[in-house]
Amino acid sequence: MNFQFSASRGLPAIVLTTGLLLSGETFAAGFAINDISMTGVGRAFAGAGVVGDDYSAIGFNPAGITLKGTGAQAGAVLIWEHGQVKGSAKKAGVAGGVASGKDDISIPVTAPNMFAQYKLNDSFYFGIGMYAPLGLATEYKDNWFGSDYGVDSELQAIDIAPTLGYKLNEHWSFGASLIARWGRVKMTNTSAGTGFSDFDIDGWNVYGRFGVMYEHDENTRIGLSYSTISTEVEHTLKGDHTITGMPGAFAFLNGEHIGGTSVRLPEIWLLSGYHRHGDFGYSASVRYTRWEYFNDFTLTSSSLLDHHTSRYNWHNTWSVALGVDWYYNDIWTFRAGLGFDESPVRHSATRTVRIPDNDRVLMSLGFTYKMTDHVKMDVGYTHIYLPTFKARNGYSHTGMGVTPGTGDVDVKYDFNAEVIGVQFQYDF
To answer: What angle do CA 234, 238, 239 make, to 5 degrees?
Structure first.
């Protein structure tokens, strides 16, 4: 689960992953990830959870698992980030106190996901999914011009989601998931000119997702889901804080210390609809994400370098998507979608280099090819367009009394992304 801005070997990039293997860029604003369905990728995630053309409803609306019988799917996505980052930042140990630079973005990364479900009888369905629902990571090279404000910033999550669906009658279905989430936070930056601070902590938590779906008939349905990740469910992580290379009077801080944090993640409401008329299916989704509690992110440490607080001041966001499927024949289905994803960051004064986020537009195409009576291949492509934007906010580092604040960085990001994914379904 990760939104990663990677700049290893001088090439910064934003990359998506599942946290099992990699870290990477999100397809949704903030650090939410939607790319757990390749049919969803093909329609910009319109109708998420209620279209019923793959087994990914577990990750969107658990009531939607009643639309499919027994089966499974596995998929992967490839993302290519391309563009440029340039700017300047105040930096200790640099003549004039300011460093500047420019780098190109061009990095491909892959990420997988898996779902399976079993139809117990005409009323009950059981499923399980393993996927990355949230992710953040910004990783630059150690000596980039803004290294005092962040080198590596990773928030990884893996959800293991056992799910139960109940079909009450021909119109109403309900679903619930009790989800075990593993989370990991890694935060590094330079300090005092030559020192290096490295937090690496992880932990487990449990939360829920609940869904309801109403089917007017076999061609028309609407669903609502709610994910309980909110300020009431804090994700506590513990691990190590390692400090190295501190010079002179600060050398006593070098070594390994106990670190920790409590992550407040957002609650999410998702409303999706689908209607088929003849050879065409029309879908739409509206998502509301409550980022309002993700204002201060504090890492504590047993060292005298007391704690590190990043200030974000995020806002709640809306995302919308529209999609269409063309059921060309029994073998081929083609689809397209358009989406807009609002960023929780409203302006450059509160945007940090740890999470260089902005509004985005998704333009998508995809198809399904029925290979046999039991096997389907789904392919999706999305172009993610982000308008050029700037990050001008630093961080507050209370432990050493250093408070750079707004205006200490002036970094311009100009990048887009191409996403292509493939998955295979097997219907038993």
So the answer is: 155
Which pLDDT score, from 0 to 100, does residue 204 have?
Answer: 83
- Rounded Cα distance between 10 and 35, Å, is 27
Backbone dihedral angles phi then psi of residue 424, each to the nearest 5 degrees: -120, 135
Instruction: Return the bridge partners of 325, or none.
Output: 281, 335
Q: Residue 393 contacts by C-beta under 8 Å, 6 or more apart in sequence?
A: 311, 348, 349, 350, 351, 352, 405, 406, 408, 409
In single-letter form, the type of residue at position 253 comes to: L
The predicted structure's pLDDT at residue 380: 96
Architecture of the domain defined by 2-427: Beta Barrel (2.40)
Residues 6+ apart with CB under 8 A from 138: 3, 4, 5, 6, 150, 152, 153, 154, 353, 354, 355, 356
Q: Are residues 158 and 182 in contact, defined by beta-carbon separation less than 8 angstroms? A: yes
Contact call for residues 350 and 313 (beta carbons, < 8 A): yes
Judge contact between 137 and 152, C-beta under 8 A.
yes
pLDDT of 50 reads 98
Cα 293 to its chain centre, rounded Å, is 17
- CA angle in degrees (0–180, nearest 5) for 291-295-300: 125
Query: How many CB atoms are closer than 10 A to CB 222?
Result: 17
Per-residue model confidence as pLDDT tens digits over 407-424: 578 888 888 888 899 999
The pLDDT score that the predictor gives to residue 71 is 97
Which sequence spans correspond to the domains of the chain? 2-427
> Which pLDDT belongs to residue 230?
57
Residue 194, SS3 per DSSP: coil
Angle at 156 between CA 152 and CA 159, to 5 degrees: 175
Helix and strand numbers, DSSP H then E, in the chain: 1, 22
Positions in the chain whose pLDDT score sits under 70? 1-33, 91-96, 105, 107, 134-139, 191-196, 230-241, 245-255, 257, 259, 262-264, 294-299, 302-312, 394-407
Q: Are strands 152-167 and 135-139 parallel, antiparallel or unpaired?
A: antiparallel
> Which stretches does DSSP call E strand in 192-329?
195-217, 220-227, 234-244, 255-264, 267-277, 280-290, 296-301, 307-311, 317-326
Q: How many CB atoms lie within 10 A of CB 277?
A: 9
